[in-house]
Amino acid sequence: MKRLFLLSGAVLMILMPLSSIAQNAKARNPVIFSDVPDMSMIRVEDTYYMSSTTMHMNPGLPLMKSKDLINWELIGYAHKALADMDELNLNHGKNTYGRGSWASSLRYHKGVYYVSTFAQTTGKTYIYMTKDIEKGPWEVKEFKPMMHDHTLFFEDDKAYMIWGSGQLHIVELLPDFSGIKPETQHVLIDNATLPSTPNGTRGGLPAEGSQLFKVNGKYYLFNISWPPGGMRTVIVHRADQLMGPYEGRVMLQDKGVAQGGLIESTHGEWYAYLFQDHGAVGRIPFLVPVQWKDDWPILGIDGKVPQELNLPASKGLVPGIVNSDNFSRKKGEIKLPLVWQWNHNPVDTLWSVTEREGYLRLKTGRIDTNFLQARNTLTQRTIGPACSASIAIEVAKMKDGDFAGLSLLQKNYGIVGVQSVGNQKYLVMVNASTGSLKEFAKIPLDQQRVYLKAACDFRDKRDVANFFFSLDGEKWISIGTSLKMSYTLPHFMGYRFGLFNYATKNTGGYVDIDFFDYKDK
């Protein structure tokens, strides 16, 4: 009887119009199962825009758009290079892993889009401005001091920034955004952490990540804290005047989902956009319904983050956030789609998608002995719950000492690649999960084209990756050991697939990568 019931249900599903099934599908949290932290969000008419953090990546300060708050696509970056300096260029043994540009603030005011950020690497605050967020051009103003986790806020014709950790400050900006207006800085909230630590407990993460909103004449300041022994917590302070006084409350403590702000949908519904630390894949965005009660935004359903949302279902992160690439370019197309970012500033003379049509060529230009210091590693985010990427690489023009292939980039990285030693090439798997690299496989390679693959499993925070090679593109063979991926604060970023080639003895060699094939499982 049960079998007949199941069969009948299957028949009903087959007979049901696909449009009905699609209409019944709903969005689920997380809304983006990938490293898109420190979101700032606005809506302009019927389009939502979002900025995020990618720190040491180039180009930086990614911008995305959506029509439904769920399905997002990259539309550009605010900057091509934060600055020209050794730390950002991976020169002289220096780097800026875990630093670069951090949490941004995205705003729209009188026909102009503003996105601001700050950088520990340079010690500066940056404001990027444009009238066309998708096409630019962007004008930039930069100044000191560096305002940590700030929020940009417009009141009439004046612009302000609120920033800090624990003790929050406010300052008015100069009309041309070139710096702060003298003698306007003062303490806005002396101890913004207090609502989450009423007993005055010290330690943990003080309130930071400020984002300010004005709703129905009142001011709402969102912050995150992490009380000792607790979890990431959303704190909201409310005031009748911009300068206060502010009254604060804990508004959400569930699943560690916190840090973000408010967005009103085109249908008049309110949501809080927040994120969760989710292990090796990174910090992933959630949407939490908001109801207003006594002029307070009440987050969640009975204080909990729901799994299901009354929004359209996700169509997946391919091609909006990540994508495959065959490296073939039509006339007028950009050389690298927006899904790609370089690890630190690239050397543009050492890569090409035009020297050999349909291939990405990566050339060596200096001697390096450390993968994390090697320039021109081209990256894309990993995505959950599971994903894989494979490449075809041609290695005939490698020189003695060259190492090229496919990586999973984080401090504790993993690599499957080709190493050139004298006149012999080897397939090599390197595992740095313990914090120091160890070679776990070295197999002689007697052909000039080989296929490499890395597969990630983030389900239930397993955070395990495995590596493979193929000699014909059909039969895959496991190589080396499993990589236990771990999110480390020195890199402060989820694992990324990376394409690389660097020299350890002689410069001038190169490899050609035929394709990058991304699979979302």
From TrEMBL:
Residues 335-519 form the Beta-xylosidase C-terminal Concanavalin A-like domain. SUPFAM superfamilies: Arabinanase/levansucrase/invertase, Concanavalin A-like lectins/glucanases. The keyword Membrane does not apply. InterPro entries: ConA-like_dom_sf, GH43_C2, Glyco_hydro_43, Glyco_hydro_beta-prop_sf, Glycosyl_Hydrlase_43. Residues 1-22 form the signal peptide. Keywords: Glycosidase, Hydrolase, Signal. GO terms for molecular function: hydrolase activity. Belongs to the glycosyl hydrolase 43 family. This is Glycoside hydrolase 43 family protein. It comes from Olivibacter jilunii. The lineage of its organism: Bacteria, Pseudomonadati, Bacteroidota, Sphingobacteriia, Sphingobacteriales.
